[in-house]
């Protein structure tokens, strides 16, 4: 009888001990500012896009799928330049600056052609986004901007969300282009 009573207490004792051990070793995540929370997603996107862009050999930067349904699609290089131009455009609006004509057109500069130039351009676009995210505060996050890219996107929060969604869309296309060329995307390795 005593043995059964003792055995009945063992699960409770183990639960209590493991719980107290957990609270001693587990530290809660620090509270992030709005700027830090949004920059976290920019960083995650950057860590997918940049290695994927680098994974494609330069000779394949001109690759675009062919066949039914692929008429007029962007090349791999154009995908990256488009993504980067949009990043820079949105960063400019968030910073209350005027985007360049090639950023507004979302094409990127015509002079940016080689893989090295495109890699520098896309990395620079994420640097611009990090600068833009650093300026976000609870006060200016949803305040209507004087100048914005479209009537439906008038707040910095909308633009910050847009760059993550837009970049993720094009990252998915980059992954397909890599796989069509027999390359496993770095995030899938």
Describe the structure.
The chain has 189 residues and is mainly alpha-helical. Helix content is 60%, strand content 0%. It has six helices and no strands. It is globular and about 50 Å long.
Quick summary:
The protein is built from 6 helices and no strands. The protein is an all-alpha fold and 189 residues long.
Q: Which key phrases capture this entry?
A:
6 helices; 60% helix; mainly alpha; 189 residues
Judged by helices, strands and strand pairing, the structural class is mainly alpha
- Look at the structure and give the mean pLDDT: 90
Tally the helices: 6
Task: Describe the main β-sheet briefly.
Answer: none
Give the topology string: H per helix, E per strand: HHHHHH
Distance between the termini: 57 Å
What characteristic shape results from the CA principal axes? globular
| Low-confidence spans | none
Annotation, overall tally of beta strands: 0
Q: What is the share of helical residues?
A: 55-70%
Radius of gyration: 24 Å
**Relative strand content:** under 5%
SSE topology sketch:
Elements: H1 2-25, H2 34-55, H3 76-94, H4 101-104, H5 115-133, H6 156-180
Helix pairs in contact: 2-5, 2-6, 3-5, 3-6
């Amino acid at each position: 009888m005593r043995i059964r009573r003792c055995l009945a207490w063992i699960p409770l004792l183990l639960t209590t001990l493991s719980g107290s051990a957990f609270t001693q070793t587990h530290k809660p995540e620090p509270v992030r500012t709005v700027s830090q929370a949004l920059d976290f997603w920019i960083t995650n996107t950057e860590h997918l896009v940049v290695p994927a862009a680098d994974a494609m050999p330069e000779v394949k930067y001109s690759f675009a799928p062919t066949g039914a349904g692929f008429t007029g699609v962007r090349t791999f290089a154009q995908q990256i330049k488009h993504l980067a131009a949009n990043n820079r455009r949105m960063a400019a609006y968030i910073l209350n600056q005027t985007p360049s004509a090639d950023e507004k057109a979302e094409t990127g500069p015509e002079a940016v052609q080689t893989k090295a130039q495109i890699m520098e351009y896309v990395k620079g676009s994420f640097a611009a986004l990090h600068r833009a995210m650093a300026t976000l505060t609870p006060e200016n996050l949803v305040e209507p901007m004087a100048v914005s890219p479209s009537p439906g996107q008038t707040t910095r929060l909308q633009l910050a969300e847009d760059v993550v969604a837009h970049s993720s869309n094009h990252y998915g296309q980059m992954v397909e282009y890599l796989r069509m060329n027999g390359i496993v995307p770095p995030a899938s390795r």
